[in-house]
Each structure stands twice: as C-alpha cells, then as structure tokens.
Specification:
Length: about 290
C-alpha cells in the first residue's frame, strides 16, 4: 500500500492528466454517475475510499476490464457486475482498484524492533502480514525470523494475506527483478535469493528456506470471517489503513486485538496513527502499538 507522499504524487499526476485529456485514451464512456457508483461499490466491497482525484486512475485501470468484455460504456459494465453479485469479475474489479506499493524491508526500523521482540520467545513465532501485496513484506519478515532465530525459525510461520489475488499470485512465485533485490545488502542477497540464469537472467528467486515459512491466503479485511487464527506475536498492518475511513479503521483494529498475544505488537505505516481511532491499542513508539 502507498504512503501519503505517493498519494500526493498521484494527485498531481491525475490532475495534470485531467487538464490535458489528449494524454489519455478516451474511447470509453465514464460518466459522473458511473464514477460515483464505482466509488460506492469498492467502498462496500473492500472499504477503500476513492477520492475525487482518482477518476483518471479508475478510468485507466478498469478500461482493461471493459475491453476484455468488449464493452464501451462503464454503465454497462457496472450493470453486469451488480446483476451477478457472486461473479468472478468482482475479483478482477477489486484487483484493478487496489494499489500495491511495497519493497523489501520497507520502513526498515520496524525489523530490528521485531527481532528484539521475538529473540527470546520460548515457542514458535507466528506473524500475520495483513497486506502482503506482491510478497516483499512477508518475505522480509521470514528473513528476519531466520536471521534472529536460526534453526528454530523452521517452527515459525508468517501468514500473509491480501485482497488482491493477482498480487498474491506474484507473491507465491517469489520471483523479482534483480535490480530490486540488489537494493538489499550483499549478505542478504547471497543468503536468501537465487540469481536466475539463461531465460531467467536479470531475475532473482526467493530461496526455499524463506518461502517455506510463508503461507499466502486471500483475505478481505471487511469480510465477516477471516481465514486466520491467532494468537499472533506480531501483526503487520502497514500503509493500508490510509485507504479506509476512520469508522472502518476502528472496526478492523477491534478485530485485531483478540487475535494477538497479550504482549503482541501491531506495526503501522509511518503515516498512520491509531491512537485516536481505537482504545484497543496504545502507542509504544515508532508506529508500533501494543494491546491496551
């Protein structure tokens, strides 16, 4: 999920595109009513709040779905969606409107804090990454388990969930551009990645010792039932709450608390503050929370 800085950048880009329509292909009809309905549907389905300036993003991302179905009007696409509430297309609709911005060891200060928290745990460690995206974050957590616990890490687990099934498919593959992997320190690259050769040159694959610690599951944080069971030593919910309104944030935080161990830690994104949203958690520091 993106940060406030990314949001501001997207706002600037969207505004400039809107001002100069010739930069965007406009072979499809998106009315004001269509855009309003899309905003309502994605909020109902995934809790995502789409701002007014996201109109161009919505057009460009959903246009692929209309062309796939040989449609020219967003109105027809939305009517088809709403007539088939259980259709597979809902998954494609949600995937299209989900933002995936992530990196290995993003917000790096959290990982030493996690290592300190789990270092002397007597039993297996279980961590929930609730916005796994394309896998960089849960694999970073698995690497932290291996670096901190050594052989005992094999008994531990990272449960990685996301609403975007396309992103999860990429995450399960565990294959990334080598340029992205080279941003890590050399020791981690050698220990945790396999460099591709031949047709795979320029790519790197997560080593099995890392991927075996991670279980990927589709999960909508708005769903009445979650396919995860605690208690968790830590929950990572970073840079996703910014896409929800405060009411939705409070509901999710309330559901997190019973799934965590009494001393469990909740990790938030650098632009997120839960202190005034829920009384279920209290701030420990550096966007890390403990159960109240």
């Amino acid at each position: 999920m993106g940060s406030i800085l990314t949001e501001q950048r997207e706002r600037s880009i969207d505004a400039s595109q809107w001002a100069s329509g010739n930069q965007i292909e406009r072979d499809l009809v998106l009315t004001d009513a269509d855009f309003a309905r899309i905003r309502e549907l994605i909020y109902q389905r995934a809790g995502i709040v789409l701002a007014e300036h996201k109109r161009e993003m919505v057009y460009s991302r959903l246009a692929k779905r209309l062309r796939h179905h040989n449609m020219t009007r967003f109105t027809d696409y939305l009517v088809r969606l709403e007539r088939q509430p259980e259709a597979k297309e809902w998954e494609a609709f949600t995937n299209a409107l989900t933002t995936n911005l992530t990196a290995f060891f993003r917000e790096a200060h959290h990982f030493p804090l996690l290592a300190e928290h789990i270092r002397n745990k007597p039993g297996p460690v279980t961590i929930w990454c609730s916005a796994a995206s394309t896998g960089e974050e849960p694999y970073s957590l698995a690497m932290t388990l291996l670096e901190t616990l050594g052989p005992k890490a094999a008994q531990s687990k990272v449960i990685a969930t996301d609403i975007d099934t396309d992103a999860l498919s990429k995450a399960r593959m565990g294959i990334y551009p080598l340029e992205q992997v080279r941003k890590l320190d050399e020791a981690r690259v050698k220990r945790f990645f396999q460099k591709g050769t031949g047709q795979q040159q320029g790519l790197a694959r997560i080593r099995p010792e890392v991927s075996e610690l991670v279980e990927f599951l589709p999960l909508n944080l708005l769903a009445p039932q979650w396919p995860v069971k605690g208690p968790f030593d830590a929950v990572f919910c970073r840079n996703i709450m910014i896409y929800f309104d405060k009411e939705t944030q409070a509901k999710i935080l309330k559901r997190f608390a019973p799934l965590m161990k009494p001393e469990g830690l909740l990790f938030a994104g650098h632009s997120e503050n839960f202190s005034y949203i829920s009384d279920a958690f209290k701030l420990r520091g550096q966007t890390v929370y403990t159960r109240a």
